[in-house]
Structure formats: structure tokens, C-alpha cells
Design a protein that fits this description.
Number of strands: 19
Helix content: 25-40%
Radius of gyration: 25 Å
């Protein structure tokens, strides 16, 4: 095998897995990461618990990838969620599966996942270098080295795993896009995905801090077509909407082409007939109650003034004086609480970046560039992203594994 090492640029999920996989396949490996700690973004995934994959089949993973899922078929079939789970269990991280197939460490500590990977790298003999890559050395359409801030490394192969543009404080600065572009790649414009949404009005700010559980959120475009619908949790903030449902909904939006309205069903367990029966029963029990007090049995406190205004019912109206038309408007508000959306929050607040290196320019089996020999790409840098639930980390692990093995094999073939 060639003496020149596989140089992995980026110490996140995909980079660490790539380094471990290349080393396991027999290559000498140097992992370059400017941050003092590896896997900084892993610390904040799953609210600090690290939702590291989803306990489903390869097909189940691909169903949760809205764009370029077919590109991942080879990588996710060779390193599916079951194998990822087994891998981490053998590294000494016991796992558990929760609602929706989400897989977490039993300890609920992201740090346990990062520590396990770090010790595995040390034990395998991967060299860790704290530095930043500024350029690739490319001769005759093949990569020969990496220019760092502190030195230049000769390389038998290079794996780019620098992440996207989300959470720049964790080191996702977009360097990888520039390096890939300089190596001849097309970059599909990066945009935020799994991101909170800004409202076009000021309704949410009035209910800031209110968390809703067991509501149904529907995201509709300007043609009233539903692009997303799911039941779960969400949150009103000073700028608009956030929480698990909202992040998932954002991945279905095409901001360049469409405008959207978020429609919340506050009572998904009751159809309109049952809801009306419930309201009439409550009215019969306390006919002289003022409308705003009456609503306390039906809605969270912060929602009541907004709901009353939308239903155009005076706050002090005795509920037995409510007209049929007013009652219909109240039900409409409760079943179809609409929030016009201005757009997503900035990309730096997104959990994941959509866009990136065009998948048609990368070999799906080995993750090697079709533009520059010896250059491999993995993780969020590629134009693939998924919905919430552990699917994005599954993409990082399986593309990292494919790139690591591909780079080791490339070095071996070059040496022979």
C-alpha cells in the first residue's frame, strides 16, 4: 500500500466514521479538524441526547429522504441502521429505541457517543491533527495533498467531510463547498432545512413560549395543497414557530417557488361534530360564564385572546348568548388555526443544510468524485438531507463508511 495517508478533512459524524473505516481497511489515516473537540455538532443533536439513527430498514431510511434518495441506496444498504446500532453497541454504547424508531444511547448523553468514537480513533491509531484545510493540491485531475494553515500534507486520498452551513459555531463554515468547487464540483445552492419558521404577522409573538402537544400541523402552499401533515409538538416563539413538528415541516418546503401557511388543528382527536357537541355541553353546564373564562376549559391561556379575536366574539359575552355563526367561527379557529409564513429562519439556525455537492458528480458506491480522482465526499456536504428522526446521522454514518472504505481501496490500487 502507498505510504501517503488518507487525509480526512472534518471531525464530525461522517469524518470520524470515514477515518475509522479507512483505518479498518488498512490505510494510514490522518484526521484534520480545527476544533479542539471532535463531533461538536453531535453534542446538540436530539436535544443533547444524540438521536444517532432510526431503527428501520434501508427502504425506511430512503422514504425519509426527500431529495436524491436513490443516490444513497448503495451506502445505506451496505451500512443500514441495524449495522450502525450493532457498531455502537460494540463500541460500548448501549442503545434504546423510542417513539418513531428514534435510536438514542441508554444514558441519554450525546457525549457518550462522541467519547466512544474518540477512543475508537485513538485505539485504531488514527492521527488527529488540529488544523484547518485551506486548499487541495491537485495534479492532472487527481488529488495529491492538502494545504493546511500550518503545513502541507501529501495524501494518497482525501475525504471531504466538513459539514454544511448550519450551526457555524460548531465549525460548519462552508469551507468544504469551496474546496469541492475548486476540485471541479457543482454546488447546489445550500439552503436551510429542519429550521424554525418566521411568521408573516405578529400572532406568534403574542403567544411566545406557549408549547402545544398532540396538535396536527399542516403546511399548505399558495394553491392550498398540503405538502406536510403530522401530529406532535410545536412551540410559539417571538419570531414565529419552532419545535419538532415545525422543523419536520420545513424540510418539505420549496422557498424558491412557493409561499406557505401553517394550519394547526388544536383538537385533532375531535371531528367538528364532536367538537360542537363538547362546546354545547360546556355551555349548558355554565350558561352565564363570560366567553374568555369559558375558553379556559378548551384552550391554553395564551391562546384565548387570539382565538376570541379570530372568532370575533367579545371576551365578556355570556356563552349562552353565542350565536350559531359565532360558534361555527370558534370551531373554525380551533380546527384550522392559520399562521401565514414569511420564510425560514437563517441557515445558521438550521439543524441541517439542504443543497451541496451535486450527487451526479459522485460515485454512489465509493463516494469518490467523478471530477478529481482520489477525492471522496461524505455527509452533509453532499446534496442529500432527510427529515428528523435520526435519518441525517444515518446518512453521515453510511456515506462516511463508504468514503472511508473507498479511499482505502483507492490507495491500495494506486500502490499496486
Amino acid at each position: 500500500m502507498t505510504n501517503s495517508p488518507v487525509v480526512v478533512i472534518g471531525g464530525g459524524a461522517a469524518g470520524m466514521m470515514a477515518a475509522l473505516s479507512a483505518r479498518r481497511a488498512g490505510a494510514r489515516v490522518i484526521l484534520v479538524e480545527p476544533n479542539e473537540k471532535l463531533g461538536r455538532k453531535l453534542y446538540i443533536t436530539g436535544k443533547g441526547r444524540c438521536n444517532l439513527t432510526n431503527n428501520t430498514t434501508p427502504e425506511g431510511v430512503l422514504r425519509h429522504v426527500p431529495r436524491n434518495g436513490r443516490f444513497l441506496y448503495s451506502a445505506v444498504t451496505r451500512f443500514p441502521p441495524a449495522a450502525v446500532m450493532e457498531y455502537f453497541e460494540t463500541l460500548g454504547v448501549p442503545l434504546k429505541t423510542e417513539r418513531g424508531g428514534r435510536v438514542f444511547p441508554c444514558s441519554d448523553r450525546a457525549a457518550d457517543v462522541i467519547d466512544a468514537l474518540f477512543f475508537a480513533l485513538k485505539k485504531a491509531g488514527v492521527s488527529l491533527l488540529r488544523d484547518r484545510a485551506t486548499a487541495l493540491e491537485i495534479q492532472e485531475d487527481r488529488v495529491t495533498g492538502v494545504v493546511l494553515e500550518g503545513q502541507t500534507l501529501a495524501a494518497g486520498a482525501v475525504i471531504l467531510a466538513t459539514g454544511g452551513l448550519s450551526y457555524p459555531a460548531t465549525g460548519s463554515t462552508g469551507d468544504g463547498y469551496r474546496l469541492a468547487q475548486e476540485a471541479g464540483h457543482t454546488i447546489v445552492e445550500p439552503r436551510p432545512s429542519l429550521v424554525p419558521l418566521e411568521e408573516a404577522e405578529d400572532t406568534c409573538a403574542r403567544m411566545q413560549g406557549l408549547s402545544l402537544k398532540n396538535v396536527t400541523l399542516t403546511l399548505k402552499n399558495q394553491k392550498k395543497k398540503a405538502v406536510f401533515q403530522e401530529q406532535g409538538e410545536m412551540l410559539f416563539t417571538h419570531f414565529g414557530l419552532s419545535g419538532p413538528l415545525v422543523l419536520s415541516a420545513s424540510a418539505h418546503a420549496n422557498w424558491a417557488k412557493d409561499t406557505y401557511t401553517a394550519v394547526i388543528d388544536l383538537k385533532p382527536a375531535l371531528d367538528e361534530e364532536k367538537l360542537e357537541a363538547r362546546i354545547l355541553r360546556d355551555v349548558a353546564q355554565a350558561p352565564n360564564k363570560a366567553f374568555h373564562n369559558f375558553l379556559e376549559g378548551l384552550l391554553p391561556r395564551l391562546l384565548i385572546p387570539v382565538a376570541g379575536e379570530r372568532a370575533q366574539i367579545p371576551a365578556d359575552l355570556p356563552v349562552n348568548a353565542m350565536t350559531r355563526a359565532q360558534r361555527r367561527r370558534l370551531m373554525e379557529v380551533m380546527k384550522h388555526f392559520a399562521i401565514p409564513i414569511a420564510g425560514p429562519r437563517p441557515i445558521k439556525e438550521a439543524i441541517i443544510t439542504a443543497g451541496g455537492v451535486k450527487t451526479g458528480e459522485v460515485d454512489p458506491g465509493s463516494m469518490m468524485s467523478k471530477k478529481t480522482a482520489g477525492l471522496f465526499l461524505a455527509g452533509e456536504l453532499l446534496d442529500v438531507d432527510a427529515y428528523t428522526g435520526g435519518f441525517n446521522l444515518q446518512i453521515a454514518w453510511c456515506t462516511g463508511r463508504a468514503a472511508g472504505e473507498g479511499a482505502a481501496q483507492y490507495c491500495q490500487e494506486e500502490a499496486e
